[in-house]
Amino acid sequence: MIQENLDRILASLAKEAKASERPVDSVQLVAVSKTKPMSAILEAHAAGQLDFGENRVQELTEKHPQLPAARWHMIGRLQRNKVKYIAPFIHLIHSVDSERLLKEINKEAEKAGRRINCLLQIDISHEDQKAGLEEAEASSILENRSAFPHINFKGLMGMASFTEDTSVVQSQFAQLSAVFKRFQAFELEGFTELSMGMSGDYPIAIAEGATLVRIGSAIFGHR
Ligand SMILES: *Cc1c(COP(=O)(O)O)cnc(C)c1O
Fold first, then answer.
1. pLDDT averaged over the chain?
2. How confident is the model at residue 213 (pLDDT cuts 50, 70, 90)?
3. Angstrom distance (rounded) from CA 220 to CA 2
4. Helix, strand or coil for residue 92?
5. 86 exposure class (CB count in 10 Å sphere: 0-12, 13-18, 19+)
6. Ligand 1 pocket, 76 CB below 6 A?
7. What is the pLDDT of residue 61?
8. Is any atom of ligand 1 closer than 6 Å to the C-beta of 200?
9. Which of 52-61, 129-138, 149-158, 214-223 has the lowest mean pLDDT?
10. Cβ–ligand 1 contact at 217 (below 6 Å)
11. Ligand 1 pocket, 214 CB below 6 A?
């Protein structure tokens, strides 16, 4: 079942990319495995899936040693006091939502003797529970990037509102894509990733330029 779901999603990502006149391999899949057992993750990995997303530090630290060959992504809100637990192995942190958090990641990356790949999360839904940076805050972090020598700034991440109204979702993804384009003016090497789109809205995200989609339930079933 997981293998069939993966095949179907991967075909769909290629089709949506093609429909937007982008290369068929321009969208990468992060399989969101939060709350799912290791058996499901191993099955997906055996089917060729390399990238897995989790939203809790504890799950990451439990699952990573059971499959160190995979690339583990942190996609959920990250508390500063927990950065140290994932710093040695995390492949990409999608959810950098403050400069204080970034400072902590930089510090723990140095301790771990590596650079950590990060995306700046931008608040595009403007819901009550604010998730992410304003464009101006993100811009000032990038201007000040020399203060973070152990961070690889890889791009941006955003989450659209939970709504059936696809025009709202489309306009929020378009906004994020526009911020991403404006930030190309910093000419940062490797600043190439735009993480947006989940099971319910990834075709819209791809049409608006997503390079990474974070898909859980369409692969592993409902949580
Ligand atoms: C859970 C989650 C996803 C995946 O959601 P699905 O609807 O299961 O595809 C993507 N991004 C984030 C940040 C999540 O927390």
1. 97
2. very high
3. 6
4. strand
5. buried
6. yes
7. 98
8. yes
9. 129-138
10. yes
11. yes
Given the CA of residue 30, which atom of ligand 1 is nearest to it? Answer: 10
Ligand 1 pocket: which of 13, 29, 55 to mutate (most atoms <8 Å of CB)?
55
Provide, rounded to the nearest whole percent, the portion of the chain with pLDDT above 70.
Answer: 100
- Non-local (6+) Cβ contacts of 108 within 8 A are 83, 84, 87, 116
CA distance 136 to 118: 18
The C-alpha atoms of residue 94 and residue 73 are separated, in whole angstroms, by: 7
Please tell me whether the overall predicted TM-score, pTM, comes out greater than 0.90 for this model: yes
Pocket test for ligand 1, best of 9, 29, 73, 75 (most atoms within 8 A of CB): 75
pLDDT digits (tens, 9 = 90+) for 73-127: 999 999 999 999 999 999 999 999 999 999 999 999 999 999 999 999 999 999 8
Rounded distance between C-alpha atoms, residue 131 and residue 99, angstroms? 14
Does the beta carbon of 34 sit less than 6 angstroms from any atom of ligand 1?
yes
Phi, psi (deg, nearest 5) at residue 78:
-115, 125
